[in-house]
Design brief:
Radius of gyration: 25 Å
Structural class: mainly alpha
Largest sheet: none
CATH superfamily of the largest domain: Tetratricopeptide repeat domain
Distance between the termini: 59 Å
Shape: elongated
């Protein structure tokens, strides 16, 4: 089966390489044909050769500046290369030609968010939601901007819409697990985490977050069981050991807690280790 799959992959690569060669020849024969450059750019992009694709997209856009789809595809290629300023300009060019495209407003908003331009990013995400209220990506993007600008309750509302409507809502559920926990809505957070685990039963980070929710609810034994489950996935998970220590303290088991926090110090050298040191100092 592996050999057969490898054969199919080789055949697909060979076909793509022939497609690139044919497209390159067509672009040479018709240097003023935007479609020829676009076809070559698309073939190169498909073959993961973006540095070669971008000049072809640029030539196509110069020859046909009024094709919204071309500007958008060029923007995606620039985004993939991390060329944020140029990608934003191309998304904007596409939207000048097709201003009611919700998905493209989302794409522009995402790139603006990625480049730290939060106010225009929020404007684009709100436009995306207004143009298509059923677009789960737009609600997710708006939730991201709101969360990053410390408006957590409105962000939760947007993530909840995504979680209800997206075909794959798990990123939104992970965000809900984190934000609902931070805002004291522990049962809602746990419900979001359980939805993630239904799809990804070995997601140790989600188990850690659920354990934290139960710590906040002061349900020490349940928190312990979730941390132990996370450690079965990854025995070197420092967050699970830190959570175990807190749960043991809740149960009055200082010696067991200190063992867990000492273990954290062998596994982490950042914020989690600092929390463990603080706990060790507090409970000598």
């Amino acid at each position: 089966d592996d050999l057969e799959e490898a054969g199919f992959q080789d055949q697909a690569r060979s076909l793509t390489d022939r497609c690139i060669a044919d497209a390159r020849a067509a672009a040479r024969r018709a240097p003023n044909d935007a479609d020829a450059h676009w076809a070559l750019a698309a073939a190169l992009k498909q073959r993961h050769r973006p540095s070669e694709a971008i000049p072809e997209y640029r030539a196509a856009v110069r020859l046909d500046p009024n094709d919204a789809d071309l500007h958008h595809e060029f923007a995606e290629a620039l985004y993939d290369q991390g060329l944020s300023t140029q990608a934003i300009a191309e998304y904007q060019a596409a939207l000048r030609l097709d201003p009611k495209n919700s998905e493209w407003h989302y794409d522009l908003g995402w790139e603006l968010k990625h480049s730290g331009q939060m106010a225009p990013a929020e404007r684009e995400m709100r436009l995306a939601v207004r143009l298509d209220p059923a677009n789960p990506d737009a609600h997710y993007g708006l939730g991201e901007v709101l969360a990053m600008t410390h408006r957590e309750l409105p962000a939760i509302a947007e993530y909840q819409i995504t979680a209800r409507t997206a075909p794959n809502p798990f990123d939104a559920d992970r965000r809900l697990l984190d934000l609902e926990d931070k805002n004291g809505r522990y049962d809602a957070a746990i419900a979001a985490g359980l939805r993630v685990l239904a799809a990804f039963p070995s997601d140790g980070n989600t188990m850690d977050n659920i354990a934290d929710c139960y710590l906040n609810k002061k349900q020490w034994q349940t928190s312990l069981s979730w941390s132990e489950r996370a450690l079965r996935v990854n025995p070197n998970d420092p967050v699970a050991h830190e959570n175990l220590g807190e749960a043991y303290i809740g149960e009055g088991k200082k010696a067991e807690a200190r063992v867990e926090w000492q273990q954290v110090l062998t596994l982490d050298h950042g914020q989690i280790a600092q929390a463990a040191r603080d706990h060790l100092a507090k409970y000598p």
